[in-house]
Design brief:
Elements: H1 4-12, H2 16-33, H3 35-39, E1 48-50, E2 53-55, E3 59-61, H4 72-76, E4 82-88, E5 101-104, E6 109-112, H5 121-130, E7 136-141, H6 152-163, E8 169-173, H7 188-209, E9 215-219, H8 225-237, E10 242-245, E11 266-269, H9 273-287, E12 293-296, H10 302-311, E13 315-318, H11 320-325, H12 328-336
Parallel strand pairs: 3-4, 3-13, 4-7, 7-8, 8-9, 9-10, 10-12, 12-13
Antiparallel strand pairs: 1-2, 5-6, 6-11
Helix pairs in contact: 6-7, 7-8, 8-9, 9-10, 10-12
Length: 337
């Protein structure tokens, strides 16, 4: 039974951030009462092994929906093959001022400038410890807004150390457009020194904890072909375990005439699909199978997911597609694979 087409107009009548919170609370209540199992389609297992981890299916939840790990079980019950929570920072922070989340239904798009609003990594890890979820869990880490960019590595190392014992994999978010200068970390010597420090710490933590936790790096869709080549080379040089392509875009070309086009923030949804796929394809050509690609950006149908996989991805993640299409999207994609 797909109730989402009936529920969506009600949710879309609310302020987007309020709707986000209401939806998550409804999912959690449905999970607690067992109602969700009656409403959700069955998602068949289609296991795939990536980064040495076995995912029950290749469709995951992208970071950003559950920033604090408060809704892991309710979201996992939708049928995802893996769930990524965060982005979380070492210390709690409130993020940017409201309004900071905008829907563009005409374009099946979302603009957000949330700014890594979260309750801090310690809160998130408490939630992970409370959760009975046994599937693949990614923890997405970032830097605090008030940490100078030259000290960003310190924040990522704090996040890596704290998340390591509980994460299935850890994502390094250096591509959000909503934290000042963050995307600078994707360029030149800055990404090289960051990756070197993270890899060294990962190997130290592997010895301490007697388990290897893969590291992925999440990149932007706005990179030039030369920047894609540069990043791919460094990912291989430092034996990073996977790359997530992509985050949101700062481009407004696809929504140029929309009244909200001048709102700052990252644009996600259908308008980023082609840019994201271009980055996936470019990475695949450079990486030549040396490390896997997790594709995110504009996945609204099974065909969209198949295009990402055909371009070279091993896994896909959805977010905006879930907002516009509902949980049946997951079963639809998995069934098509």
């Amino acid at each position: 039974m797909n109730l989402y087409p009936l529920l969506r107009p009600l949710l879309f009548s609310l302020d987007p951030e309020t709707a986000h919170e209401v939806t998550l609370k409804l999912l959690k209540a449905g999970q607690a009462t067992g109602l969700n199992t009656l409403l959700y389609p069955t998602v068949v297992d289609k296991p795939v092994t990536v980064m040495g981890l076995t995912f029950k299916n290749p469709v995951g939840l992208a970071a950003g929906l559950d920033k604090n790990g408060d809704y892991i079980d309710a979201l996992a019950a939708l049928g995802f093959g893996f769930v990524e929570i965060g982005t979380v920072t070492p210390r709690p922070q409130s993020g940017n001022s409201k309004p900071r989340l905008f829907r563009l239904p005409e374009h099946e798009a979302i603009i957000n400038r949330m700014g890594f609003n979260n309750l801090g990594i310690d809160h998130l890890l408490e939630q992970v410890q409370r959760s009975p979820y046994q599937g693949i869990l990614g923890i997405n880490i970032g830097k605090n807004t008030d940490t100078p960019i030259e000290n960003a590595t310190d924040d990522y190392l704090i996040g890596l150390r704290k998340a390591y014992p509980l994460a299935s994999y850890i994502t390094i978010n250096i591509s959000s457009p909503n934290t000042k200068n963050l995307r600078q970390l994707q360029q030149g010597d800055e990404i090289k020194s960051l990756l070197a420090a993270l890899k060294e710490e990962q190997l130290t933590l592997q010895q301490q904890h007697s388990r290897y936790v893969p590291i992925t790096v999440k990149i932007a869709p706005d990179l030039t072909d030369e920047e894609i080549t540069h990043i791919a080379t460094l990912l291989m040089e430092f034996s990073i375990d996977a790359v997530i392509a992509t985050n949101t875009t700062i481009s407004r070309d696809a929504i140029a005439n929309h009244p909200l086009a001048n709102e700052t923030g990252g644009l996600s949804g259908a308008p980023v699909k082609e840019k994201s796929t271009h980055v996936v394809r470019g990475l695949a050509a450079e990486l030549n199978g040396k490390l896997p690609i997790i594709a995110a950006g504009g996945i609204f149908t099974a065909k969209d997911a198949q295009e990402k996989l055909a371009a070279g991805a091993s896994l896909v993640q959805v977010y905006s597609g879930l907002i516009y299409r509902g949980q049946h999207l997951i079963a639809e994609i998995v069934k098509s694979l």
